[in-house]
Structure formats: C-alpha cells, structure tokens
Specification:
Shape: globular
Distance between the termini: 11 Å
Strand content: 5-15%
Mean pLDDT: 93
Largest sheet: 7 strands, parallel
CATH architecture of the largest domain: 3-Layer(aba) Sandwich
CATH topology of the largest domain: Rossmann fold
Number of strands: 13
C-alpha cells in the first residue's frame, strides 16, 4: 500500500515531537511505501533533512510557503465566479466554516485560474476585499486590509495549484496547510483521508499570533479566524480523525468535529530501547535536563528564569537544554542574553545530541511549553525513570499525574504556564529529596510501560491502514 504522509513545519526538516512520531511510524511498517508531502516555510530548507529517510520512503514532495514571491502579477482580469465560488472565497477570508472546499479547489485548479498573482490583481479580488472592508473592517485602512488578505491567501492558493502525489491513503499529521492538502487529495482522487492531530494546530497559531509583532492588533482576529477555517477543511472531509488524549478530543468537538468520528490513540514508546541508559557520573551535582527545540512556543525563557532562582539557593545544580537552536536563531540569541543578564553560571546548551547519552545522568527533567500535544519527551524521560516538572499543557497533567483510573502515583509536578517561580520551587524540592525523585521516576516508568507502548500505537495504525485500504 502507498501512503502519503502530509506534514507541515516538521518532518524531515525538524527533529523531535511530530517528526519523531512520523519517523517511527514509517520504520515500523516496512510492508508499506510512503510518500512524504513536506510543507516548510522557506525554500532555503530544501533538501535540508534532519533524518536519514527509511528505505520505504519512495518520494519526498517539498513545498515552500515563500515560493509565491517569485510569481509575477498581471493586472486587470475579470473572473466569472459562480455564487458558490464567490461565497466560498468570502467565507475563507471572513473566518467562516461555510467554505465549499470542493468548489474552491475546482476554481483554483481550473484553467481560468492560471496565475495566483493575477487573481490577486483582479477586479474580483478587489471586490472581495471591499466586501470584507464594508462588513467587518470599516475603521482600518483599505490598503492595509488589501495586502494583509493577499499575504494570507497567496501561499494557500499556490499550495492548492501544486501537484499532489498519487497514493492509496492520505494521512495528514496536522490541520492547517497540511489538512487542506489532505482535503484536496480527498477531493481529487477520492481516496481515504486520515487526520492525526497531535496538538490543536489552530489554537497554537492563535497563541503565536496574539504575541506576534508582525500582525497589527486590528488584524489579529483576521489571521486567527483564517487558521480556524483552514483547519475545518479536513475536519469536514477526513474519514478518520485521531487525537492523542481526551482533552484534545473535547477541543476538536468544540471546533466542529463530530464526536463519533474521533478516536484516541496515545503516543507510544518501547521502553526496551532505553535499557542501556545508565548513570555514568556519580557526584553531588544535581543535573536537570530538558529535551526541547529552542523555539518560542517551548518558552525556554521561563525555564531559564526558573533555573536562575534555583541557582540562587543551591550551588550544586546544572541545567542541560538538549535540542537544536537553528530553527529560530533569533530566539536562541535572546535566550543566551537572558542567561547573561541573570548571571547564570551552570546552563549548558548542548545543541542536537543523542539524548540517550545524556538521560542516564539527569536527575529529573523539565518542560516549560506554552502549548503541547502529548510530548514524546515525557515518555522518553519516563522510560529512563526520570520524573518531570511540566507546565499544564496538552496531556502533560494526564501523563504526570495519571488518569482517573490510574494507580501508579504522581511522576512529577504540574505548574501553570509561565509561572517560573512555582517551577523553581518544585525544582528545589526535587533537588533536595532523592527518595522522592526515585519514587516519582519509578511511577513514570510503570505508567509508560503499561499505558503508552509503541506496540499498541503501531498496531492501531496498521489496523486503520488495513481497514481503509480494503475499501479503496
């Protein structure tokens, strides 16, 4: 069977998290062929893969959201839009779930729609923005609205005009642009479509846009609603919608998913892969670790601020931040400046490493994210019997404290997002209490060994592929 995995901003350009999940899924299914449809922000990422691709990957189809800068515009064309097409375009930019995606796809991929830049210079597009200006944005400059909407839909339309590889099953690993490509493939080829949503994409974009300096305040809701609308495309068309834990399912239902179409399949890990992880250094130093990409959504600055407070109280502590920094070099530099400003002595930024070479010497681990799904980092830490202190995001509370029917006991502590003082207090508590660290580490190990196995995760997806493949 040939399966097209559609990923945005992750595999194969970024390590960890969703990328690790994709890599593990393909490795576990040598009986299938995989096509990677990879959506990335910038063409300079082309071919810059962070993974050695499994042998059953037969193609990597790359699309870059900045490619629209190369398209020339021709002015003055008039399109003859049907009412359905016009209303779908209005719904798209208006933040509505009433988009007729089949009609929109047909328009954008039709012969009359030969140049996206040409459409954005047409009378039809002008009238579209004019409608938006009169109905929702009466007090903002029309020119700003015109170019803001252009910057929103231009990369999307370029994406939709691109080639979609033929496959037996399409599997998007997020909503957003990846979800729209999945919906497009479903319409074009009438093949089964699966969505696995690790975190809630539209919520994550909302959090980023609220904090973003590049979006003016009065346009933030325009961008936020746009991403919610994109996400609804695959919610409405997917044959299978999968999430990782109960709270995510509740949010998906709030966003318009039919609850009976959603199933929960947790992430899984093989604890035996970590049998060789052992402590190699025996001294009085307490080593704290974080397996994390250095990007704003992981809120590394909170972690640094918390450690600064810990270092003021304890002299024998070190923090190892283990993960790549090149994804957002500006943010990495800001983190280094914060370390210097706070006069912190014992933080080590390791860059990309083999975490198995480090985990054995860690006493406990941290996660300070603003948003998460079901972090593989926590499962990896638990597989090595390491307790966690984490912000209350995604399924972190469920992983650390257990579900209602759980009998293993707490495997760490949960703190509110951005509350670095509370994180610091728990860090000091674990630093000073070795028996508690060992007990919580054991609880985490037992929980992951029972409830989050790689075998269960892979078996579930093999059955989904088999079932959907049988009805093609």
């Amino acid at each position: 069977m040939r399966i097209c995995l559609i990923a945005e901003g992750s595999y194969p350009y970024v390590t960890g998290g969703v990328s690790s999940w994709i890599h593990s899924l393909m490795h576990a299914m040598p009986e299938h062929e995989f096509i990677i449809y990879a959506i990335a922000a910038e063409r300079k990422q082309q071919g810059q893969f962070k993974y050695a691709l499994p042998t059953n990957v037969i193609e990597v189809h790359e699309f870059f959201l900045d490619d629209h800068i190369y398209e020339e515009a021709k002015w003055g064309k008039r399109y003859h839009l049907t009412d359905v097409q016009r209303n779908s375009l209005i719904s798209l930019v208006n933040g509505s779930n009433n988009v007729d995606w089949a009609a929109l796809f047909q328009l954008i991929r039709s012969n009359q729609f030969t140049n996206v830049g040409e459409f954005l210079s047409s009378k039809d597009y002008y009238e579209l923005v004019e409608h938006l200006a009169k109905t929702k944005y009466t007090h903002v400059p029309f020119t700003e609205l015109f170019w803001t909407v252009s910057s929103m839909i231009l990369p999307l339309f370029m994406l939709l005009r691109g080639d979609v590889p033929k496959a037996d099953i399409y599997h998007a690993v997020s909503t957003g642009y990846a979800g729209v490509v999945g919906a497009l493939a479903k319409i074009i080829y009438d093949k089964p479509l699966i969505l696995t949503e690790h975190g809630i994409y539209s919520r994550e974009r909302e959090e980023e846009i609220i904090k973003a300096n590049w979006v003016k305040g009065y346009f933030k809701d325009l961008w936020i609603n746009y991403f919610y609308t994109l996400s609804h495309s695959i919610y409405s068309l997917a044959d299978e919608i999968i999430t990782l834990f109960g709270r995510n399912k509740e949010i998906q239902v709030e966003l318009g998913c039919e609850p009976e179409r959603i199933r929960i399949i947790p992430n899984g890990i093989d604890i035996h892969d970590y049998n060789q992880v052992v402590r190699t250094v025996k001294d009085d130093t307490i080593r704290i670790g974080a397996i994390v990409r250095l990007v704003p959504i992981k809120d590394i600055k909170m972690m640094i601020q918390a450690f600064a407070l810990v270092e003021q109280q304890l002299s024998n502590v070190e923090l190892f931040i283990m993960g790549p920094a090149e994804e957002n070099e500006e943010y990495y530099e800001e983190c280094l400046q914060l370390v210097q400003l706070l006069n912190i002595r014992n933080i080590k930024f390791t860059g990309m490493v083999n975490i198995k070479e480090y985990l054995g010497d860690m006493d406990f681990l941290l996660l300070s994210s603003i948003s998460e799904g079901q972090p593989l980092a926590i499962l990896e830490g638990f597989a090595c019997s390491k307790p966690f202190i984490s912000t209350n995001v995604g399924s972190c509370r469920e992983l650390i404290e257990g579900r209602l029917d759980d009998h293993f006991g707490p495997a760490g502590f949960i703190v509110p997002v951005m509350h670095y003082e509370e994180m610091a207090n728990y860090m000091v508590k674990l630093c000073l209490d070795e028996p508690l660290r060992l007990e919580m580490g054991k609880n985490g190990f037992n929980r992951v060994a029972c409830d989050y196995t790689r075998q269960a995760f892979i078996t579930s997806y093999k059955e989904i592929y088999r079932t959907l493949g049988a009805v093609m």
